[in-house]
Design brief:
Blueprint lengths: L3 E2 L2 H4 L3 H8 L3 E6 L2 E14 L26 E6 L3 E7 L7 E12 L1 H10 L16 H7 L16 E5 L7 E4 L13 E4 L13
Antiparallel strand pairs: 1-7, 2-3, 2-7, 3-6, 3-9, 4-5, 5-6, 8-9
The chain binds a DNA duplex (13 and 13 nucleotides) through strand 4, strand 5 and helix 4.
DNA sequence: CGTTCGATGCACT
DNA sequence: GTGCATCGAACGT
């Protein structure tokens, strides 16, 4: 099977196109303890200062600076003081936008993912293939993605995305979840048949 | 099934 | 001081 690391040109496009095409791509992290990888089944787009849910809504700040930078870098931030959430930066320099990775189906390194999630306190029923990388805060634990990966270049290092020819047959758009503003934008893209998708609205 | 709520760190006002 | 792009346990139905 061909494994092609996604080029920067993949990210340097309209964010909704990137989000749709990201479903079915594979997120890989080679880290201490072993390599873990999973197929993306759920993402959300956050686009521009006019999007009230985007971190760029207040304008350029120290935290959201990566959103304004080079596409194809990771934007990782700490949410609720507990969870590292991973985005990929899209569009072009000066145009703040990103796609949040929300859920994966595990492909490589299931045992190390289970060890990491269990060590973080997850109960047995949350370390099954359907739940191990279900939710943006859970998948970062499973792949050992932390704030140390903020601004990581997905072209160069041990954290990257690749195409293994596993694209989703059907991608469905729904409202974004878990946010308190901007829920009118249907910028959440999910694999319609995956059981690893988080949240309530698993189907249309 | 459903809803509520505490944990927890830090950027931002 | 306030408010999160969350998670999972606890509780009510």
């Amino acid at each position: 099977m061909s494994r092609r690391r996604l080029p920067r040109s993949f990210y340097a496009r309209p964010t909704l196109d990137v989000a749709r095409d990201l479903v079915g791509m594979v997120l890989v992290h080679r880290a201490d303890g072993g390599t873990a990888a999973g197929r993306i089944v759920e993402v959300e787009a956050y686009i521009g200062e006019d999007d009230p849910a985007c971190h760029a809504a207040p304008g350029l700040t120290a935290r959201n600076a990566p959103l304004y930078g080079t596409p194809g870098l990771a934007y990782v931030y700490l949410n609720y003081g507990l969870h590292s959430l991973m985005n990929v930066v899209t569009e072009r320099k000066g145009q703040p936008a990103a796609v949040l990775i929300r859920a994966l189906e595990p492909l490589d390194g299931l045992p190390i993912m289970q060890r990491r999630r269990t060590a973080a306190g997850a109960p047995p029923h949350r370390v099954t293939p359907d739940t191990i990388c279900q939710g943006p805060g859970n998948l970062t634990v499973a792949l050992a993605i932390t704030l140390a990966q903020n601004r990581a270049d997905l072209q160069k290092g041990t954290l990257f995305l690749e195409d293994r020819g596993l694209s989703a047959a059907r991608v469905v758009w729904t409202p974004r979840i878990g946010i308190r503003v901007g829920t009118d934008r249907h910028w959440r893209a999910i694999d319609a048949v995956s059981r690893a998708v988080s949240g309530r609205a698993r189907t249309v």
